[in-house]
Amino acid sequence: MWNYQNGYIFKGLPSFPSMATFSPEWVGMIAAVLTTASFLPQVWLTYKTRDVSGISLGMYSVFTSGVALWLVYGLYLDSWPVIVANFVTLALALLILGMRLKYGKRQPG
Q: Which of 18, 22, 44, 107 is least surrounded by CB atoms within 10 angstroms?
């Protein structure tokens, strides 16, 4: 169990850094940046090569729906890390899904 009282994170262990400068919101923001940025290489590669053979239409459809719901959840909570991360992730996932729909109909050769 996390204990943020008196500068301790775990019972008996000093916290690092202090809770006055590093909050759980920062952890959320860092996680949001990293997970959202992880989509950029896929978007760029798919755009550049037009190769969507490894992208599952079903998986990306369900994933994109889930991200949209996370965005709605973030709006209800008024949590900016959740809102911004899921807005950007939704846009990137929609780009990948759109390219999958557009370029997935091509026949090789």
A: 107
For residue 8, count CB atoms less than 10 angstroms from its CB and return exposed for 0-12, middle for 13-18, buried for 19 or more: middle
Give strand pairing partners of 10: 13
Domain presence at residue 16: no
Strand pairing partners for 14? 8
Query: Would you say residue 41 lies in a domain?
Result: yes
Domain region containing 54 = 23-103
pLDDT band (50, 70, 90) for residue 15: low
pLDDT tens-digit map of 54-68: 999 999 999 999 999
Q: How many domains does the chain have?
A: 1
Give the single-character DSSP code of 9. E
Q: Which residue has the higher pLDDT, 103 or 9?
A: 103
